[in-house]
Design brief:
Radius of gyration: 26 Å
Oligomer: single chain
Helix content: 40-55%
Shape: elongated
Low-confidence stretches: 247-302
Mean pLDDT: 80
Number of helices: 9
Strand order of the largest sheet: 1-2-3-4-7-6-5
Distance between the termini: 74 Å
Order of helices and strands: HEEEEHHEEEHHHHHH
Structural class: alpha+beta
Largest sheet: 7 strands, antiparallel
């Protein structure tokens, strides 16, 4: 039972880690790792074609350390702590020269990530033996989070479109009150969502969806990835606490991924919460509703008009 709980803690901790982009020899890889010094570690690596995984406890760490480092005698916690010190700079892209050397080899369907370093003045070696990840693990760390991120970004785009429509109504109210722009370069056309989407698909989509070697995903979207995965873990823990069976988001329109924007996250500087969605106006046809602005707001916003 204790080992099962420890493995679940490693799995949960790994899910809530961001992806890092690595360049090892000629291999561009995405990787994430989670280490608990008294329990073991979990590692996930992908080249965007395959996903490899290794998860071990302290007994495996102790045995492998004896095989690779016969001159070093230490408890598994010491080796795990040293591995954590070596991996953290690598995954945070802050690795300094000379602290450790990393390389990787593919053996059949497995991937071996090799580490060379020093510990207590003696050479230290470690091999991560990663096997192909199961479909459920790939779904947990990539498929479901990416689906949740897509839904979140779609909701965010709708919110921005609604805000632009409201801004157009505000500008129209000023114009109908006789206001004129003091600077012509600030003039914009009313926002038309369908035209914008069509133009985006033709002009911006090819560049926007260029995955490449995965680096744009790591560079630009990790905060959102963490928000989604942490929400997923939170929902799972809530289901376990109430004893209710966990259902997939495809079974209900209000699944865990769709709730990302509806409920606040725990305070976390690396995972900013997204704004809660508001109702989108039911249409733009018919008479335009004139916004009722207070005198103070009119005075404040007339700065662009004369």
């Amino acid at each position: 039972m204790k080992t099962l709980v420890q493995m679940e803690e490693l799995e949960r901790g790994l899910l809530m880690q961001p992806w890092a982009w690595l360049q090892l020899d000629q291999n561009s890889l995405l990787a994430k790792a989670y280490i608990i010094t008294k329990q073991g570690y979990a590692l996930l690596v992908s080249d965007l074609q395959h996903v490899w995984h290794e998860q071990v406890d302290t007994s495996v760490v102790s045995q492998r350390a004896k095989e690779l480092n016969k001159r070093l005698t230490a408890p598994p916690e010491a080796f795990l702590c040293h591995l954590d010190d070596l991996l953290l700079p690598l995954l945070k892209d802050t690795a300094g020269p000379g602290k450790a050397t990393f390389s990787c080899d593919r053996v059949a369907e497995a991937l071996v990530l090799r580490v060379r370093s020093e510990l207590s003045g003696l050479p230290f070696y470690w091999n991560f033996h990663c096997i192909l990840a199961s479909p459920s693990l790939v779904s947990q760390h990539l498929v479901r989070p990416l689906m949740g991120m897509s839904l979140a970004l779609q909701c965010q785009a709708r919110e921005l479109a609604t805000l632009l429509h409201m801004k157009d109504l505000e500008i129209q109210d000023y114009q109908e009150s006789g206001a004129v722009l003091s600077r012509d370069r600030l003039k914009t056309e009313p926002f038309e969502e369908n035209s914008f989407l069509e133009r985006f698909m033709v002009e911006k989509l090819p560049e926007a969806c260029s995955v490449g070697d995965g680096r744009p995903f790591v560079t630009n979207l990790q905060n959102l990835y963490l928000a989604v995965t942490r929400r997923e873990v939170q929902v799972r823990q809530e289901h376990q606490g109430t004893g209710e069976p966990q259902t997939s988001s495809s079974a209900s329109p209000q699944g865990p991924d769709s709730q990302l924007l509806n409920q606040p996250e725990e305070p976390d500087s690396s995972a900013p919460s997204l704004p809660a969605p508001e109702k989108k106006p039911t249409g733009t046809s018919g008479p335009m509703q004139r916004l009722q602005l207070s005198k103070a707001k009119r005075k404040k916003l007339r700065g662009l008009f004369s």
